[in-house]
Specification:
By secondary structure, the chain is α+β, with helices and mostly antiparallel strands. About 40% of the residues lie in helices and about 20% in strands. The chain has one domain: Trna Endonuclease, Chain: A, domain 1 (3-Layer(aba) Sandwich). The chain is globular and about 40 Å long. It starts with a helix and ends with a helix.
């Protein structure tokens, strides 16, 4: 099973190869709760945010469930404001978010 960090890097490289400006969000105690792993701008100016999860990921406790719900709420805000957003478990799912 691939680690999340490997999936993030693979998605980032694929998006960059297609001309996207991509940033990896590194969470910290000073960060904003719920921000996506990857975000950026596609050619043409469309903003996107992608939350990456390993294929077998499931919330194991209440804290993980709450964090995931916060992440989903962030993605909804991006969509509500005209951006592209979603959860991806691999590069194919990420590309479906970017090119619906």
């Amino acid at each position: 099973m691939q680690k999340e960090s490997v999936i993030v890097l693979t998605i980032k490289k694929q998006l960059e190869s297609e001309g996207a400006l991509v940033f990896k969000y590194h969470g910290s105690v000073f960060g904003v709760l719920g921000h996506s792993d990857l975000y950026g701008c596609l050619r043409g100016g469309k903003f996107f945010a992608i939350e990456v999860k390993p294929p077998d990921w499931r919330p194991r406790n209440k804290q993980e469930k709450n964090r995931h719900e916060t992440q989903l709420a962030f993605l909804k805000r991006i969509k509500d404001n005209g951006g592209l957003a979603g959860v991806a478990r691999d590069v194919n799912e990420a590309m479906k978010i970017i090119v619906p």
